[in-house]
Specification:
It is a single chain. The chain is α+β, with helices and mostly antiparallel strands. 22% of the residues lie in helices and 30% in strands. It has one domain: 4-Layer Sandwich (S-adenosylmethionine decarboxylase), CATH 3.60.90. β2 (62-70) and β3 form a beta hairpin. The termini are far apart.
């Protein structure tokens, strides 16, 4: 797309909502607890901060403030306030800590650009399946766009299901005062994901390009049983157990992907 000469600041807001699900077969209460503890440690606020900081650098933005929290009994949240241009120290709000995290720092406000992540480890005492969900939202204004970081985000997590929404809001004006509602080419989120990554997933789109709303869902199409069991290997299972576990895992992934409960056939 030919670059447009704008009058003033680019007021377009580009928002990416990125949700990933990891599924694990946990046969006992002890396995469920161990899986949740493992996930909680693997994706604690410190590592999530590193991931979001990398995302910020990939999209060529600058960090103004970092706030993060690990929760009891599980879960973590991180929020980054970011800017398109580097903000000089003398004009930066005193509440902003830049990339140096202070233990007593809090986010007291959000600018037009921010990155957030929340984690949701989940299990049920009557079910053999435990799930882990990560919600990441990247909202930017100006020339920077969050979809540049998609491949990095996908590679940063073990993802059985990925659900993404990308939306461009508002408008900006050119020198003649004409409104522009888009400043880059996009027909699908999949256009910004590497082909070798896409080949590992079954994907569907629901795109309202006339409204600048793009939705993509991806479900892993490769099954390795050892990736879905915890503290054991497939060699420890009987053939009947392998079939049952595969059936339960595939049902869980399909329900998440399609957003509906699938009745058990009897």
């Amino acid at each position: 797309m030919e670059k447009i000469k704008l009058y003033g600041f680019n007021n377009l807001t580009k928002t990416l909502s990125f949700n990933i699900y990891d599924v694990c077969y946990t046969r006992t209460e002890a396995e469920r607890k161990a899986y949740i503890e493992y996930i909680d440690e693997q994706y604690n606020s410190e590592r999530l901060t590193k991931i979001l900081a990398d995302v910020t650098h990939i999209i060529d933005a600058n960090i103004l403030n970092i706030a993060r929290q690990d929760y009891n009994p599980q879960g973590a949240s991180v929020t980054l306030l970011i800017a398109e241009e580097k903000v000089p120290d003398e004009v930066r709000d005193p509440s902003c800590n830049g990339e140096t995290l202070c233990k007593d720092s809090v986010v007291a406000h959000l600018d037009k650009s921010h990155v957030t992540v929340h984690t949701y480890p989940e299990s049920h005492p009557d079910q053999n399946i435990s799930t882990f969900r990560v919600d990441i939202d990247v909202s930017t204004c100006g020339k920077i766009s969050p979809i540049k970081a998609l491949d990095y985000l996908i590679g940063s997590f073990d993802s059985d299901v990925i659900i993404m929404d990308y939306r461009i809001r508002g408008f900006t004006r050119d020198l003649e005062g004409n409104k522009h509602y888009m400043d880059h080419n996009i027909t699908s989120i999949q256009d910004y994901i590497a082909k070798d990554t896409l080949s590992k997933y079954t994907s569907i789109d629901i795109n309202l390009d006339h409204s600048n709303i793009f939705h993509t869902k991806m479900m892993l199409n490769q099954f390795n049983l050892d990736n879905y069991i915890f503290n054991i290997t497939s060699n420890d299972l009987t053939e009947a157990e392998k079939i049952q576990i595969k059936s339960e895992i595939n049902k869980e992934i399909a329900e998440i992907f399609y957003g509906m409960n699938i009745p058990q056939m009897k």
